[in-house]
Amino acid sequence: MTRRSAWKVCLCALVLAGCAPQPSPAPAAATPVLVTTATAPVLLPTVEVPLLAGVPSPTPLRFAFPSDGVSPVLAWRPPPYPVPWSLRPEDHFFFGRPIPSGEVNWPLARYRYGGTFFGEENTHTGVDLGADRGTPVLAAGTGEVVWTGYGLYRGIPDTTDPYGLAVAIRHDFGYAGKVLYSVYAHLQSTSTWLGQRVETGDRIGTVGETGHTSGPHLHFEIRLGANDFFSTRNPELWMVSPEGWGVLAGRVTNTGGGMLREQLIRVRSLDTGQEWEVWSYAQGAVKPDDTLQENFVLGDLPAGPYEMRIDYLGRTISASLLIHPGQTNFIVFRGRSGFLIEPTPTAPPGLFPPSS
Q: How many independent structural domains does the chain possess?
């Protein structure tokens, strides 16, 4: 199936976010430090630097449920950090995992936020967690159920809705003065009602394959400011990580600074040799973090040294970086200039504490 143009972008993801923590005293934050090479990577000492520093189409296209792709995953993960978790005000890990530990509660490699499954599907506005049919689905944060049933996409009852059986929660906390919502789609069953109060970890349904999908999984979205398809953010920047693990986010552009879309990025652990693949965001309804302005995110990385590689204009450009646990690690790639050490984005004055 060919990808539609941006103004025809359709849906297939649901997401929500929210848990506004009071920022803890920010320790000296660390970003990955990189050195560009034309062929072989060179691992240099890590430098510590402050971090963080329309209407939808009425006929959304079908999303086929893919296999987990090339990237291997570990069957075991440490327990998650408590939520909300924020070592620095730049991070906003306000949400727990919507699938309990011991089950597949990490995003599938090929169906991350902003992906199109190699141009065959619409731009993905959430993440897919490939847990088995019947697995409990948990509220990722405290709040009020504002949707339950079929029809979330259009906001009216509709058994043909692409989200299938879905639940949406408006959270008690917000971010930067905006309301946060979370969305849980393709459910087999729900145990919620409109207006119900839920707490983090409450069971709200079970994993299924209703709606436009070809296999059981949970589609999870975070929405900021409005409960609609065009207000999503990348859930991997909002869901808490396993203890001792971190998140890699970055901005991948051409030499002139224009965003590179669907650019393949390879990441390899220098400790274990394990490799991951992630693609930069495609054109569509996805939105970057207001502060980071990222166009790719790779979560659930054990802390330690890594190599990152990008093929650009016939060259493989690589760099070394260090993933710090419990935080977002940020990098920049700029075409022929390679991986650059730039001042990391910082939150604008007055952003914190988050609204409640």
A: 1
| Sheet strands (E) in the chain | 127-129, 136-138, 143-150, 165-175, 178-190, 197-198, 203-207, 218-224, 232-233, 245-253, 264-269, 275-279, 296-302, 304-312, 315-323, 328-334, 339-340
* Long-range contacts of residues 79-84, Cβ cutoff 8 Å, at least 24 apart: 79/242, 79/243, 80/240, 80/241, 80/242, 80/243, 81/240, 81/241, 81/242, 81/243, 81/326, 82/240, 83/19, 83/21, 83/141, 83/200, 83/240, 84/19, 84/20, 84/21, 84/240
188 SS3 class: strand
What is the distance between the alpha carbons of residues 327 and 37, in angstroms, rounded to a whole number? 26
Of the CA atoms within 13 Å of residue 222, those in its CB half-sphere come to: 31
Alpha carbon distance 353, 350 (integer Å): 8
What is the value of pTM for the model shown?
0.79
The rounded distance, in Å, linking the Cα atoms of 151 and 237 is 27
The domain containing residue 178 runs over which residues?
Answer: 6-53+56-340
Residue 347 lies in a domain: no
Q: Quick check: helix, strand or coil at residue 151?
A: coil
* Tens-digit pLDDT profile for residues 189-210: 999 999 999 999 999 999 999 9
DSSP state for residue 40 in the 8-state scheme: S
At 295, the amino acid letter reads: N
